[in-house]
Amino acid sequence: MIVSEPVIRMENIIKRYYIGKPNELQILNGISLSVDQGEFVSIVGESGSGKSVGMLTLMGLLASNGRVEEGKILFDGENISPPHMKDRKEKRAYEKKMQQIRGNRIGMIFQDPMACLNPRQKVADIIAQGLDIHHRYHSQKERTEMVADILHKVGLAPEHANRYPHQFSGGQRQRVGIARALVMNPKLIIADECISAL
């Protein structure tokens, strides 16, 4: 019997923030997590316990202001742990690698639907951001159709694509955030309290 590699594996993650010595905050203390293909995993804990920090660490979104001291993060067997990044070259290489993974192979639905949407962009451009970066369409018509299709799937109308985030309710904005994650058909979706605003 062949045992497949977990989609994501976090092993003994310890993450600290430094706010001026000796003021060190340890946010994650030995966190381990494994998610297999097709598996749903829920993380439950009180407010401030580090749930969001853990998921943002996994996405590489906190690498510049809080490093992983110990442990590693594997996605499809590939080590995507944020390095200590003592030099700019190392930081650029890590960011380039994570740009290929974030949004493309791992999608994230953020907790705050207003803070995660660019208020100056129309919904069509917000949803299609990953499609644009990773060249997932062959024509503008195909891009428009992909955006309209995903809007329909999350309960919004195609005409909503031409509106701005402030023209939506909180629940509708969260649907836009969900659409942005789903349109890329990622292998893993991280949802940070995504239904709280619906």
Using brief descriptors, characterize the structure shown.
21% strand, 6 strands, alpha+beta, two-stranded parallel ribbon, single chain, 6 helices, 198 residues
Characterization of the model:
The chain has 198 residues and is an alpha+beta fold. The chain contains 6 helices and 6 strands. A 4-stranded antiparallel β-sheet has the order 2-1-3-4, with helices on one face. Strands 5-6 form a two-stranded parallel sheet. Strand 1 and strand 2 (24-35) form a beta hairpin. It is globular.
How are helices and strands ordered from N to C? EEHEEHEHHHHE
Uncertain segments are none
Binned, the helix content reads 25-40%
Question: Strand sequence of the main sheet, in spatial order?
Answer: 2-1-3-4
Strand segment tally = 6
- What's the total helix number? 6
Mean pLDDT across every amino acid position? 87
Rg for CA atoms = 18 Å
Tell me, briefly, the overall form: globular
Major pleated sheet: 4 strands, antiparallel
Strand content: 15-25%
Overall structural class, as computed from helix and strand content, comes to alpha+beta
Termini Cα gap: 42 Å
